[in-house]
Every structure is written in C-alpha cells, then in structure tokens.
Amino acid sequence: MKTSFYDQTLPDWLVWADQEELPAYRARQIAAWASRGVSDVDELTDLPQSIRARLAEQFTFPSLELEEKYVSAIDETAKYVFRLSDGNRIESVLMHYRFGRSVCLSTQAGCRMGCTFCASADAGFGRNLTTGEMLAQVSLIARDCNARIGHVTLMGIGEPFENYDAVVAFLHRVNDPAGLNISMRHISISTCGLVPKMIEFTREGLPVTLSVSLHAPNDSIRQQLMPVAKRYRYDDLLAACRAHTQQTGRRITFEYALFDGINDRPEHARELAGRLRGMLCHVNLIPANEFSGGCYQRSQPSAVQQFQDVLVRSGINATVRRELGADIMAACGQLRRRKEACGIQ
User: Fold this and answer.
1) HSE (CB half, 13 Å, CA atoms) of 90?
2) Hey, what domains does the chain have and what are their CATH numbers?
3) Most exposed among 52, 76, 242, 335, judged by the fewest C-beta atoms under 10 Å?
4) Where are the beta strands (DSSP E) in the chain?
5) C-alpha–C-alpha distance, residues 340 and 320, integer Å
6) 298 DSSP assignment
7) Angle between the 164-175 and 131-145 helix axes, to the nearest 10 degrees?
8) E strands within 187-311?
9) How far is CA 321 from CA 142, 154, 201, 304, 312, in A?
C-alpha cells in the first residue's frame, strides 16, 4: 500500500532520498511542497521528471479530494467538504477575521463522543485522521484562497484527544518554520473533557490554547448533554483545567453552547460563575446551532445577553461567539451529516 505524500516528514524524506541515492537537498525540496497544498506530483516543478516518476510510484497524490466548497454570501466564510482516499468525508472551515485567516479542521472522520446536541453524533464514525491529512486540510485551503493561514483551530469533526499522538505530531509539523510556520500561540485545540489526555497534554508544555467543551454548570445537566460526563466528573474536569493553567500560565477557554430552557437560565450562570471563580479562564458563549432532527432549540438573544451579564458581574470574562457562515451550515458536521443521511456517495 502506498504512503500518503502528506504523511512524510523531513526525516522520512531524508531516509527516502538516501535509499533512492539522491542528494539530501532533494529531500528538503520535496518536504517543502507539503506546505504548498499540492495535489499532483507534476506540481513539484523544481524536481526532475525522473524523481517525480519515482514519487508517483511510491506515494499517493492527493491525500484529500475537494468534493464541495460553499462560500457564505454574508461574511465570506468558506466550508470545504473533503473526501479521503478510503471514501470517508470530513469538513474544514475557512474564517476571515480582522487579524487574518483561520482554518477550523477535523481530526477524525466522524466522532464517537455522542454529544446529544451535535450534528456529528449520529452521522457515524469512520476513523482517526493521520497527521498528514490534518496538515493537508490547512495546506490545500491556503492554496485555494491564495493567502497565508495564520491561525488554526482543532474544533471540527472529531475529538482531538481521542487521536492524541497524530494531533500532537500535527501541532509540531504545522509549527515547523520550514513549513506552514504557524505559531503555536495561534493554535487552539478543543476537547470535550478526556481528563487523562488533558493531563498528558499539559505535560507536553505546548503553548497552544486549550478549549474545553463545558456546556453546563454541573454534572447533572452535563451528563444529559454529553455522555463523556458520565466517565469524568465535573470536579475532576475542572481540577485538570486548573492544573493546566497553573503549569502553563495560559488561559483556558470554556465553550458553552446555550440551549433554551436547558442550561441558559440566570441560576445556571450564577452556578457556573461559582465553579469557575479564581480560575484563569474565558467563557465563550455560543448561541447553539440547530439542525434537522436535533432535540434542542437555541436560546433567545435576551437569554444569551442575560447569561453573559451574570458572568461578567461575577468577575468571569465572557463573550458571545460571533456567528459565521450561517447560510452555508458552517457548523462542523452539518454537511457531512446531511450527505450521508441522504445516502450520497
């Protein structure tokens, strides 16, 4: 079975070049193309045809195939649906901010976490993505928009910490000065709260932003929304978060989607503030995404504002997430779910 071009690192290419009796500078030339979003071996124009032929024999091009692209008429947010070499689908989103362009990428084809409010929950699980498939999402989108990507969020389809080793390897590769050279301080990684992996990640000492999908002020409501909460208690999750801030000095972001009548009342905000008091954190309030077949409704704007006001008055930094790409179902999982539920191959 052929290896994916994007899964090769510079050390891998150096070994390959040595085996092929090629000079080391050829390995560096080949490795550099992974950050340029190539999808065909003939795009490696600084290589002789003889080397390109050997690459085509031994490696797959591309590792992702762009199946669909949607661009928002509201804010230019772009959603990409990629098909993997084995037929699985993933989604990525390009967002435009005043500070530059950011890509939200997937780490798995599907998700096993089963959050009851998530469009990915019942769309099936395919597999973990490779490090190269994560890197390719960023590279191909950068090439498509013909602009530098300055920020990356691992908040698309999948639970990043369930694909831990590949995700950590991706963080190092996307940060490589010889490649995409994206600062780790401009990378955010989201988890639904796999406490042992959070503790392990803290030990990595990487200066990325850790985002935790919280969505509730207590165990009772969180277990209703997120099956993972039955495995890891609320207090244990917050203890891991406190340890992370203390060891890294970096602020944690808590993602909190607001659902009408479930977790959006002032008493919920007061309870949440009491839980988070004294922690180096920021609460990102999210007017929840609704989708066909979903069992929750998003909170009213007045409830969102009231919730934020309670947190801020309690000394908790809280903002409401700007909604992007509403007209193209930019929330991750929605398009994949729709296509696969309709039997689209």
Assistant:
1) 30
2) 3-60 (1.10.150), 64-341 (3.20.20.70)
3) 76
4) 3-4, 59-60, 64-71, 78-84, 89-97, 100-104, 108-109, 127-128, 151-154, 187-191, 209-213, 252-258, 281-287, 318-320
5) 31
6) B
7) 40
8) 187-191, 209-213, 252-258, 281-287
9) 24, 16, 26, 11, 15
Note if the bond before 62 is cis, omega within 30 degrees. yes
Question: Measured between alpha carbons, how far is 155 from 329 in angstroms, rounded to an integer?
Answer: 15
DSSP 328: G
The two tokens of residue 282 are: 């920021």
Average pLDDT for runs of 10 along the chain of length 345: 92 98 97 93 96 96 90 91 94 93 96 85 83 96 95 96 98 95 97 98 97 97 96 98 96 96 97 97 88 75 97 97 64 48 42
Spatial neighbors of 67 by CB under 8 A, at least 6 apart, are 81, 82, 83, 89
Structure-token pair, residue 320: 């409401």
pTM for the predicted model, two decimal places: 0.90
How many residues appear in the chain? 345
Which two structure tokens, joined as six digits, stand for 100? 């530059």
Task: List residues with catalytic annotation.
Answer: 91, 332
